[in-house]
Amino acid sequence: MIDESLTGLRIRRLRLFGTISNPRTYEVSFLADDLVRPIGIVAGASQTGKTSVIEYVMYLLGGDDFPDHEEMRDNVTSAVLEVSLNGEIYTIQRTTVGTPSKFASIWNAPIELIGDALEARYQLDKPGAEDSLSYFLMDALGLAGARLNTSAGNPNADSHAFSFKDLTRLIFYKNSRLDSQNLLVENGNPVVAYKLQQTIDFAFQVSDEELGLATQRLRRAEEALREAESTVRALTAVVDKEYPLGPTGASIVLEDASVKREALRAEVARTDRIESAAQNGLSDLRNRLTRQQKIESEAWERVRSRESLIDRLRALALQYADDKRKLTFLTEAEKVFDPLRIEVCPACLATLGRDVSLDHGHCSLCGSEDRSVVASGSILSRRELRSTTQRLDELTEYLGRLESELRVFESRAASEQAAVQELASELNHAAELPAPFLAARDQLMRDLNAAESEVARAEVGVRFWGRVEEAERQRDARQGTVTRLRREQRELSTRPDRAEVKTALSKRFANILTDFGYPKLKGDAWLDDRLIPHVRGAVYTKASSGGLVLISLAWAMALWEISWERRALLPGLLVVDSPQKNLGHRAGPEDADFADAKLVDNVYRHVESWLAGAGSGAQAVFVDNSPPPELASSIVIRFSGNRAVPPFGLIDDAIE
């Protein structure tokens, strides 16, 4: 894996953030065990978003536009790129809604930790300004402050700030550029072509302006170093006065205070449990008393109900007794005073010769038929007397049972009342008991508050010493930058001749083509003074479509490899989209020399071999439909193009 302490730019992770309705993230990681892979391949079927991965990367590094496919417009609102820049990890973010954003946010932290890091905002409109994203990147690469002329023959012509976008022509190679016949823009815009030539000169430190720029960078770095040293001294003086034990001592104090605080928290919790148990006991007594009072109330309610019933029945019994007395008197009266004993005729008042009687159903006085009035009256009186006597006896018996039950109810109610009084007395006793743990808890809380204060102060001390250490780290980093720039300045005073660099690039170009197995190559490949490729004795534009791809790859890799080996100012990163274009089975019928699939294998084999040797520490990123099986471990993600086999594509949940 790559040693990220080396200089340059490395791509670590790309993450896309979704919308409010679809709050997902989509990620492509070029890491393995948190280290950058030397070769990272984005593989998969066509129309799945492979090229969009590279377009997002370019956009986040200052590109003019982001992918505008429908599924990305609907599902992506912002993108972040985690990079390693001279060994430091940074996260860059830009929005992707509507038009390209005019600002980029940068955090000196991995993606997951940006919430705890300080955000810095950089504009994109003026790449030469010190608050621009381009200047930030170029400064890290040692190219900030340079300017590119627009004309070689006119010293008064306008000049443009050397931007990172200019440098990307030597880093990012799109699909369309690989078989272009305008590799160095030699047949296109002359201003762009001249700027590209100057970009190469700056990258390989053979520009006449390089020494002056190095001196300016060194002065700025020395000034920044002095500021960092002053900051360290000031911070150390202030922090050492308040926290004289130093960072290690502050950490020990914090650890001890934290242990003491946790012990006190545990003791307070134990005391609270004791108090809670006591409160639960009182609550249980109160609940029991409430239930017992309810039972007592119900018992006395039954007593009152039974007393009321007995009172009503006693009144009824008295009425029955009175009726019985009346009926007894009536019955006795009928026996003493015979209602048929008549001695004088009621009509003439003559004395009757015999007593009046009923004879065979007829009255002996008037001869009328017997109506049984007198007899019936006597019988009814006796019958009613018997009935009243029976009811009175039954009522008296029922009243006896009710009075017996009443005595039971009264006894039970008295018992329930005694139970209520006992529970009330117990509750009063429990409530009046002293609670010694309350005083102990108050003391524990005072101790805990003191421990919390001690922990808070210790944490402040640790943070302050952390700031001192951060300031020292920045000072050391700036010291390293000053040392590096002084070395560069010395090297520039004896910088290589442009012709010598051109010769080295030309030889490497030819060697790479040989490694590729370029068909019918007989040592007749080179780069001219403008670094324009010639192959088989002819300018590269005469080559077939497959030949153009191999020549473009060899040219790009020659610059990449030589700059890395000489520690020039290119960032050590190479990104290629579709290296198999027009090669192998993709070669046309008129391009039979390049139909051999081994050519593709040779390209990857060359890159893999160089990265394992002189190129150790550099990074290559390829976008390829079907890379060789031998490089399966270098595939960072493979898009299937089949919704049944995830991931379908970069936006893997997009609806067709």
3D architecture notes:
- With 656 residues, the chain is an alpha+beta fold.
- Among the domains are: 1-143 and 617-656, Rossmann fold; 261-433.
- The protein has 13 helices and 20 strands.
- The protein has helices spanning 50-60, 70-75, 133-141, 164-167, 175-178, 190-203, 210-242, 246-336, 373-432, 436-493, 498-516, 545-565, 598-612, and strands at residues 9-17, 25-29, 31-32, 35-36, 39-44, 78-85, 88-95, 103-107, 119-123, 147-149, 159-161, 172-173, 358-359, 362-363, 525-527, 533-535, 538-539, 573-577, 619-624, 635-639.
- It has a 6-stranded antiparallel β-sheet, covered by helices on one side. Strands 12-18-19-5-20 form a 5-stranded parallel β-sheet, with helices on both faces.
- A hairpin with a 2-residue loop joins β13 (358-359) and β14.
- α8 packs antiparallel against α10 (436-493) and α11 crosses α12 (545-565).
- The longest helix is centred in the middle third of the chain and has 91 residues, at 246-336.
- It starts with 8 loop residues before the first strand and ends in a 17-residue tail after the last strand.
- The model is unreliable at 1-5 and 372-376 (pLDDT under 50).
